[in-house]
Structure formats: structure tokens, C-alpha cells
Fold these 3 entries.
Entry 1:
Amino acid sequence: MRLFLALFLVLFLPAAQQAPRLVIPLHTERSSPGDLEIGGELAGIPFGSTRFLRYDELLQFPQQTITVTDDNFHTPTEISGIALSDLAKVLGEHANMIVAICYDSYRSNYSPEYLEAHGPILVLRINGQTREHWPTAPNGDQLTPYVIAHPHFIPRFKVLAHNDEEQIPYGVTRLEFRNGDHIYAPILPAKKWRSDEQVWNGYLIAREDCFRCHNSGGEGGTMGGRSWQLLGQDAVKNPQRFRTIIHSPETLRPGARMPAEAAYDAATLDALVAYFRTFAPDKPIPDPGVKEPAKP
Ligand code: HEC
């Protein structure tokens, strides 16, 4: 009997010591406005459909607790939550990218390299408090229903004057677990441009920066209300205005919601012009004008 028990321990203990496989209930119906929508290329779920995670169920999962100071939390703040890469392991076995989509149509794309380097966390508690007690962002916007934060952000690369940009969206309503090739395909420069260093640099910058708010087809954010093809047309029509809009939008459009990239120098702005020009349509497309994005 004793021998049997010893064998049992040797055979089964290592397996038992591994973290238990977490099962997150994916609901087909929304239970409250604070549920987190889940979609993308998920095993067993048709592409384009939505499932829901409930806040109270997410709180049952093991949480990481860290102190952060970033744009959303100006004073040191203790946050707890689930690492996005842990969620991906549980939910998105075939996906290598996570897209966080916000109530104002802003989105952040997390590549595998980004997840590995920066370890972003889906925040569930702020200073130990559940979200009825959360503060607002320094600009007064709601952080709820979900916000993403980092343990400590050290830029991992630099392209011209663009630094690897911290992706810390708030007001996140949906996470998509996706294949990165599908996401980037509509903004990849055409083959003949891929060996052009200036165009390629423009691509690397636009993909991290502009793509959060400007879309190409169904990919990318729509907060800017202006597609990649229209931006291409803008870059051809008036490259100087295009540069100024990126560098200091307020000078041309008082009250602009588009953030200034004041650190972008001439070479960086030129790379963006060179890249976007490759997306200018052959025949001019109608310009609907620049709209104020709708607030929730
Ligand atoms: C955080 C969201 C955001 C990001 C990031 C962003 N934009 Fe915008 N963009 C907007 C919004 C919103 C508008 C509409 C005007 C406004 O309110 O600023 C806009 C408008 C524009 C316009 C038209 C403005 C005009 O007056 O003609 C251009 C061109 C443009 N964006 C280019 C870019 C490029 C290129 C990048 C990347 C370097 C970029 N945007 C990054 C949100 C963004």
C-alpha cells in the first residue's frame, strides 16, 4: 500500500503542482454594461461573434498586484488584474495578437513582442477597490469598464524620432484575440515599396501610432473618422499640412482631439508622408470632411 502511494505521488504530483488550467466562463449573453466583450479568432467561436466575460467572475482569477504611474494614474497607484498574455493563453490558443477596443473607437494592438516585453495587465482593482470606486482619468474621462496598465514601461525600440509607444487604453469594452498577419495586411506597404527604408519606417510608426485611431477597412481604430486611403490622399494633396497636423494639430484645428507628436522631427514626418502616399487612391475618393468624433 505504501509503495503504491509513493508511486502515485511521483507520477501525479508534478502534474498536480502545475497551475490548474483556468476556465473562464464565456457567456453568449451580456449580463450588464460592464461585461467585457470577447471576440476574434477564437477556437470554437465563429469569427465576428461576441462572447461576454463578467467582471465578478474575472475577479475570481489570480491577480497580479503592482504599483503604476502612467498617463492614466498621475500619482503612484496600486492596481491588480490579469496579465493580457495569461488571458490569451486561456482564450486565444490560435491567436498571437490582442486588440483592445474602447468606447470611443480608439484601439490598441498588442503584438506578441509587446506582450512579452511590457506585460500589460487588464486592471480589475484600483487601490484595492472595485470599479464603482475608481477615480476618473486625469482628463476627467471614465476609466471604466476596463483599463490596461503596465508594470513599468521601458521603450523597446526607436524608429527615427518615434519611441515604442505605451499602449494604455481606458474605457476598454472589447478584447479581440487575433492573428497579427490579418490585422496588418491592409496597412502593409505594397510589395514594391517594402525595400524602401523611408516607407518601411513610416509603416512601423503608423502601425503603432496612427492605427490606434485611423482604419483601413475593418482594421484599426475609427476614432479619427478618417481612413488610411483618405490619409494617403491628404499626404499627396498637401504634404506640408499633413506634417503639421501630425506634429501640432492644434495650430490648424483648435480643440483637435488628435494628440500632438511634438517630438517627431522632419525625417520622421517625411517617413510618414512617404508611407501614406503609397496608399493614395489612383482616382480621388470623396472626402467626407473631418468630423468631431462622437463621445459616448
Ligand atoms: C488618439 C487618436 C489619434 C491618433 C493616434 C491619430 N489621429 Fe489623426 N485624427 C484623430 C482625430 C480625432 C481626428 C479628427 C480631428 C480632430 O479632432 O483632431 C484626426 C484627423 C486626422 C487628419 C485630418 C485632419 C485635418 O484637419 O485635415 C489627418 C491627416 C490625420 N488625422 C493623420 C494622422 C496620422 C498620420 C497619424 C499618425 C501619425 C494620426 N492621425 C494619429 C485622431 C487620431
Entry 2:
Amino acid sequence: MGCADCHTPRQHTSPDAAELLANQTFFPFTDLLLHDMGPELSDAVGEGGATPSEWRTPPLWGLGLILQRSDDARLLHDGRASTFHEAILWHGGEALDARRRYEALSPAEQEALVHFLGRL
Ligand code: HEC
């Protein structure tokens, strides 16, 4: 689908990090990088060195629990989405191809992906 191009499942800490944190493998589902998400997610205000449509890939781990435990949990930088499905449909720019692949899935396949995201 291409989601993992940005929501990179696995990261490994540097051997030069503090002793307890060095050489650790963890699974945040983010590359920690900025991406141009297109006009869909542009809010007309640049922050720091980022343009108005650039956002850092958020980690997906634990998001399912947050959505499960809170009635008013919101997704994306301005909280405009309240479900994984909605959040994916707002993806544009560098993520447009991934969104289109998601849109081309059958409802059952979309549900399976959303179910997977809820278990991270
Ligand atoms: C080009 C990089 C890129 C690709 C490809 C991509 N995403 Fe994202 N994703 C992002 C960025 C950046 C954000 C944050 C956007 C914002 O905050 O407005 C995000 C936000 C999200 C969120 C909301 C997370 C939160 O904490 O608010 C979900 C869920 C998500 N993506 C799932 C997916 C899925 C599923 C796919 C594949 C169909 C996908 N993404 C493909 C970069 C990407």
C-alpha cells in the first residue's frame, strides 16, 4: 500500500545513544520525517522550517488504545479526523498514491487495515 514508506514499522536506536537507550529496536510506525501532504492538509501557516503542508509522520503505535478509551480523541495535526478511515482519506501530496490504493480496496479490506491499525 505504501503506508510503511512513511509509517516505518521498525526503528533502531544509535549505538551512541545513552547506555540504556543504545541499540534498541522498537516499532513506532514512523520515519520521524517531514512530508509534504499536499493541499488537503495545508493549513496556510508554516511552523519553523516546515511549509504549511509539511507534517512530521506521527507514530501509529498506541493510537488504537487512545481511540478506544476516549470518546473525543482526534487525529491529524488539527484534530479534523476522528477515525482511522477519515485520517487516511485526508492524505494527499506525497501520500496521494497510498490514499488512492486505500480507496481502491474493498470495504472488507479497508476494515481489515483499520482493524490492524487499532491493534498497534
Ligand atoms: C508520504 C508519507 C505518508 C504516507 C505514504 C502515509 N502517511 Fe499517514 N501520515 C503522514 C503524515 C505526515 C501524517 C500527519 C498529517 C497531519 O498531522 O496532518 C499522517 C497521519 C496519519 C494518521 C493519523 C495519525 C495521528 O496521530 O493523527 C493515520 C491513522 C495514518 N497516517 C495512516 C496511514 C495509512 C494507513 C497510510 C497508507 C494508506 C498512510 N498513513 C500513508 C504521512 C504518511
Entry 3:
Amino acid sequence: MIYMKNVIRLASLLLLISITLTGCYYDKENELYPSPKTVCDTTHVTYSKSIVPIMVANCNVCHSTALQQGYIITDTYNYLSGLASPDGPLYNGINWVGGVSKMPKGGAKLSDCDVAKINIWIRAGAPNN
Ligand code: HEC
């Protein structure tokens, strides 16, 4: 009988401990659902929604059709897509590889998210979508 009592005591002690431990665990909302600003959505990359805004914000200031610095144009689909082959000037320029000028010239590298989007677009064959 003494043996059984000890088994029951031990079992209830374990139960209590496990309830206490799991009871103290709580999910933090911002860890489960990070705010949309910190999420890089690379699932629906399109020319118009993803690439154009990056060019507007970072590249067209020097590479508009009017300015064409370095004879490069980034504000038209036709010209930009012509640069957008894998390992081509656009890829090398924004990834800072291949020995070409680092773009944006004189500025910080694009965010990882923007680089990822452009790389995805290039790999997809630079569609006009
Ligand atoms: C401050 C002006 C400026 C900005 C901003 C800028 N560029 Fe350039 N870019 C240049 C100049 C000038 C050249 C010509 C090469 C040189 O002088 O380094 C050039 C060259 C290039 C080339 C050709 C590189 C080569 O050697 O073949 C590409 C591609 C390019 N830029 C893309 C971009 C993209 C994409 C962005 C935006 C992420 C960007 N540039 C932002 C000034 C700029």
C-alpha cells in the first residue's frame, strides 16, 4: 500500500509540474505574426507591382529616359528587361558581383528583400506583368 501511495504522489507531482510549465508558456503575437513591414513577400513578384517601385525609389533618379546616366535606362520595361538576363548588368549591378559598378551608384546596397525580388524577376525571364 505504501508503494502505491508513493506512485500516486509521484504521478500527481509530475502532473502538477507539467501543468505549471505548459501553463506559463504563452505565444507572443508579434513573434507569431511579425508586422507586415518586416516580412519580405517574394511570392507574387511582378514587374509593375514589385520592380517598378524599386526602380522609382532607387534608380530612375539617374537612369530615367531623360538622364540615361551611363547610357542606362531603368524607367521603361523594354530597356530594363534588356539588362535583365541572369548574370547580366542588372543582376551584377544590384548584387554587387561580377566586377561592374555597384548600384545604386554611391549609395547603400538595396535591401535584401528588394534584391531578392529583382533576382526572382530576372530568373523568371523578366516578364512584363
Ligand atoms: C547616383 C546615380 C545612380 C544611381 C542612383 C544608380 N545608378 Fe546605375 N549607373 C550610374 C552611372 C553613372 C553608371 C555608369 C557606370 C559608372 O559610372 O559607374 C551606372 C551604370 C549602371 C549599370 C551598368 C553597369 C555596367 O557596368 O554594365 C546598370 C545595370 C545600372 N547602373 C543599374 C542601376 C540600378 C538597377 C540602380 C538602382 C538600384 C542604379 N543603377 C542606380 C549612376 C547611378
